[in-house]
Amino acid sequence: MIGRIGAGIAILLSVLTFTSTVHATEIRKVVSDKGIVAWFVPDQSVPLITINFVFRGAGSATDPDGKEGLAEMSSALLDEGAGDIDSVDFQRRLEEIAAQMSFSAGRDHYSGRLRTLSVERDKAFDLLRLALTEPRFDEKPVERIRGQLIASLRQNAENPQRISGKTWSETVFSGHPYSRPASGTEQTLAAVSKVDLQSFVEKRFTRHRLVIGVVGDISEAELKQRLDRVFGDLPQTGPKFNIPEVRPSGAGKTVVIQKPIPQSVLIVGQAGIKREDPDWYAALLVTRIFGGGGLSSRLYEEVREKRGLAYSVYAYLSPMEKSALIVGGVATQNSRVGESLDVIQAEWDRLGKEGITDDELRDAKTYSNGSFPLRLASSRGIARLLVGMQISKLGIDYIKTRPSLINAVTLDDANRVARRLYDADKLTIVIVGEPEGISSTR
Amino acid sequence: MSVITRFCSIALHAFSLLTASAFFANDSHAVVFSPKSFELDNGLQVVVIQNDRAPIVMQMLWYRVGAADEEPGESGLAHFLEHLLFKGTKTTAPGEFSRTVSRIGGRDNAFTSYDFTAYFQRVAAHELETIMRLEADRMHNLVLTDEVVLPERDVVLEERRSRTDNSPAAQLREQVRRALYLNHPYGRPVIGWMSEIRKLTTEKALAFYRKHYSPSNAMLIIAGDVTLERVKDLAEKYYGPIPGRTVPQRVRPKEPPHRAARRVVLKNARVRLPAVSRTYLAPSYASGEKQNAHPLEVLAQVLGGGTTSRLYRKLVVERGIASGAGAWYRGDGLDYGEFGIYASPKAGGDIAALEKALFKELDAAIVEGFKAEDIKRAKKLITAQATYVRDGLRAGPNAIGQAFTQGQTIADVEAWPERIAAVTPEQVMKAAWTVFDDKNSVTSVLLPEVRK
């Protein structure tokens, strides 16, 4: 009884919350003299500056054939020497100012971030500029990083999570760039040359791919100058990489990778929904009810709470530039894999056929509207959001409009989308372990 | 390694593994989190860390009980009870706690280590009362039945398989702890041994709860967009009526003198990259030769804390025989601290040669000492964290909660940066000479099993 009343109040108040949150995180669009665009949230509460940026469509899916792992290898080398500064010196200078700089290659996008004490921003921004525009790729650090990446491949070679993820990508994206190993293989990493690294960066670090989010202790006028200095000399455009759209394959297929471990690791999933799809918000709420959001969901309740089958069980939407997936997962002792799969498939089927209830939808909405602002607690969270909003082409007022997009989802919408997306007959299942009584299809 | 959570995919897990010290640090202006605190009549300590950057609050409740407070034969009980605190009270149904938090748009979880058990939620600021009501309720009204306890025990067994039994490296870490501690309960796994988890019962969990869960054994920390007055009102209202209980003194078995260096080797066909490490028993901030704790923090950084550190520079950069190398210090334990060094070879490299090189570098470092500028840079790097940790809500409650449960005070947390800044090169070397005694150490080697 108390719970019900509480929920009603929460709906009302979550709107009010947003009003004040918007005030706290008012986003400005900043355009520098040279035309570099950044979304910016000024914040003097801590003397720090955080900048996140992305080169869209420059991720590991664009690795040349036979050079898989190139994007990741380059991302590990940008702070290993640039301009006149060699590798050891570059690392030392970063430490001297306690700046945090890192780069990473996702499948679709290539991203970087810098966090610095605002008093050290001169040096920090200059090191970032050098890393992006004049990376050296000297032989010694290249060989060292290559060795580390190969060592890391070996270290992870028998990790069941890694094996299941890799097998999953190979199965559902067979023949597509998404199927290739983002971290490469020992062979492809060995094939990467200094010229490959230079050419990779030159072709992809372009202004037309660039998206930037900045949070922190810096004035708008100064930020404009810094943006010009760091990013202004990057080439305007570069070649286009033609990654085709791909519909996930492998529906109805089960792949078992035998490994002598006591607990099997499973990935189950099927085609999902793109971020720009008009049904996105309905899908988000339905999937939250099904398998998301921490310590309560249908899967959590049925697999973990009622039956004690697993510690971790989940499902989430994975939208990509050229495809989309719903991915679920569980890890359970070998003798109970069959039972766990039965429960998950039954829930998957029930969701597709019967949909959700009004109560579930209402709770999912209050959860979604209430939890979204929690990511605004830190500069890093806000900066990630600023970049994500731009990649997904959301409006600069998205923080304000999002609750209305969530609240507009009706039960009919949700159930139509559940029917459209969730089809237990289309599941692809990957299992790593020694699952009892289950073998690969075909 | 030593902290385990109720739900694995949460980011918090990663940072809760860090030593308390990693969170607070300095620009030598003393204050870090500027907390305010008071105590209720029943003994509950309450701390408020105001931060009105976003309309969000975080509640953390820390209990001074962990795996090192379990009786022999009942390993895993503290962590199991943590799971069971989500299973309902006299007025809330099993699972209702998390469902309510979720419905109001919050996130909740909990974690257990040797010296503490902690529960937390993050919600919109106007929902603070809801989570304070719920958390206070389960401090004294827990109801457990076999119907909910037994499936949860299976969940914990699966958690153990995920964390430890599926991973040769994790199995080795468990063996290292067992070998490092000859007598103290820090040698047992927080999650428990498989055979002992299986024997945990509803009755044992309830007895442990009654023995240790009391306002007089806990600290409540509220961080975020809130005032001291508001927290006082709500704490009095919900936590105030809970009767204080006498809880047992935390007297754990002590270590006898260590007289022999130990070595553990794990061979497994699933190991593709060998590794070598050595862990030394060390003083902590709260026990042993405490004056060495801050210097050891600096030592870990300058010896093996990053890419410019001595071990990394020599073994990875200059000699090129290792893919990774470093050092760490865990100084937050109530009874003991630990200092570790480690290295992994390059693919196909010779692990025996690397082991020799690692210890040779360690000896050389102790003999030669460190350059003043290297120590200065290490201190700067550590103390800059004092600023970084203020960006967000979690670090303050974490640092203060860990201090409370591990024999330190709020003043220690706030003074930490100053104390790090004051560490001299001589103190670093003195700490190094003291800690690197082979008799106090376990050397561990992870090896591929070669089939003949």
Q: Can you give a write-up of this model?
A:
- The complex is a heterodimer of chains A (442) and B (452).
- Helices cover 45% and strands 17% of the residues of chain A.
- Chain A is an alpha+beta fold.
- Chain A folds into two domains: 209 residues, Cytochrome Bc1 Complex, Chain A, domain 1; 180 residues, Cytochrome Bc1 Complex, Chain A, domain 1.
- In chain A, the strands form two sheets. A six-stranded mixed sheet of chain A has the order 1-2-6-3-5-4, with helices on both faces. In chain A, strands 7-11-8-10-9 form a five-stranded mixed sheet.
- Chain A starts with a helix and ends in a 9-residue tail after the last strand.
- In chain B, the strands form two sheets. A seven-stranded mixed sheet of chain B has the order 1-5-6-4-7-3-2, with helices on both faces. Chain B has a five-stranded mixed sheet with strand order 8-12-9-11-10, sandwiched between helices.
- In chain B, a hairpin with a 5-residue loop joins strand 2 and strand 3.
- In chain B, helix 10 packs across helix 13, helix 10 crosses helix 17 and helix 13 packs antiparallel against helix 16.
- About 5% of the residues of chain B have low confidence.
- Chains A and B meet through helix 1, helix 3, helix 5, helix 11 and strand 10 of A and helix 3, strand 5, strand 6, helix 5 and helix 11 of B.
Rg for CA atoms of chain A: 23 Å
Oligomerization status of the protein chains: heterodimer
- Kindly report the CATH topology of the largest domain in chain B: Cytochrome Bc1 Complex, Chain A, domain 1
Number of helices of chain B: 17
Number of strands of chain A: 11
Give the CATH H-level superfamily of the largest domain in chain A.
Metalloenzyme, LuxS/M16 peptidase-like
Report on the biggest sheet of chain A. 6 strands, mixed
> What is the residue-mean pLDDT of chain B, rounded to a whole number?
93
Secondary-structure class of chain A? alpha+beta
